[in-house]
Each structure stands twice: as structure tokens, then as C-alpha cells.
Design brief:
Number of helices: 0
Structural class: mainly beta
Distance between the termini: 40 Å
Oligomer: single chain
Largest sheet: 6 strands, mixed
Radius of gyration: 13 Å
Strand order of the largest sheet: 2-10-9-4-5-6
Strand content: over 45%
Length: 114
């Protein structure tokens, strides 16, 4: 049974930073691409960033230069460092595994106050 658990969300002022973590169990983490998505209140879920099994990264244009996705295979963990946060980035942030079947976490809420 694959489990995906996010943490690290919270309340931050505009311009501030947060680091989200996502721990995956029950799968061979090293083989999986991983991604972060977010869902603002009343809006659709959107992709934020992804990291391949080899460490290659890509980002939504809206977060390039401010967010960094990384992984620690020894800890089965993927991170999302978010700097320069904006109020419109208030959302529930979700981690998802890549591959044939996607597994989603329960999300961690991020609130950016103006």
C-alpha cells in the first residue's frame, strides 16, 4: 500500500518562505518521478513542479525562480522550497507520485497573508 504524506504547510506573510515535505512509503521511491500540485480555494488543481527519478526538474512559469523542488532518496522524501510567496498562492498543496498509477497525499494547506 503506497502512502503519501505531506507536511510543512502553514500561515506565512506575503514574501515569506515555507518548505513542504512529502514522504512516500510502500513503493520504490527512487524509481518514481514526483510532483507538487496546488488547489486554491474554489479553483481547479494545478501543477506546480516536478522532479524526475534522475533529479531533473521543471516548474510552472508562475513559480520559476521562486520555488525549488528536490528529493532525498535515502529518506523517501520530496521537498518544495517556496520563497517569495504571494497571497494568490494560498492553496492546499498536494504531492503525487509519477508512474503508471498516481498516488496523492491528503494535502497540506498554505495560507499567505497580505
Amino acid at each position: 500500500q503506497v502512502q503519501v504524506v505531506e507536511s510543512g504547510g502553514g500561515l506565512v506573510q506575503a514574501g515569506g518562505s515555507l518548505r513542504l515535505s512529502c514522504v512516500v512509503s510502500g513503493s520504490d521511491f527512487r524509481l518514481n518521478a514526483m510532483g507538487w500540485h496546488r488547489q486554491p480555494p474554489g479553483q481547479q488543481r494545478e501543477w506546480v513542479a516536478g522532479i524526475g527519478s534522475g533529479g531533473s526538474t521543471n516548474y510552472a512559469d508562475s513559480v520559476k525562480g521562486r520555488f525549488t523542488i528536490s528529493r532525498d532518496n535515502a529518506k523517501n522524501t520530496v521537498y518544495l522550497q517556496m520563497n517569495g510567496l504571494k497571497p494568490e498562492e494560498t492553496a492546499v498543496y498536494y504531492c503525487v507520485t509519477g508512474g503508471v498509477r498516481n498516488y496523492w497525499g491528503q494535502g497540506t494547506p498554505v495560507t499567505v497573508s497580505s
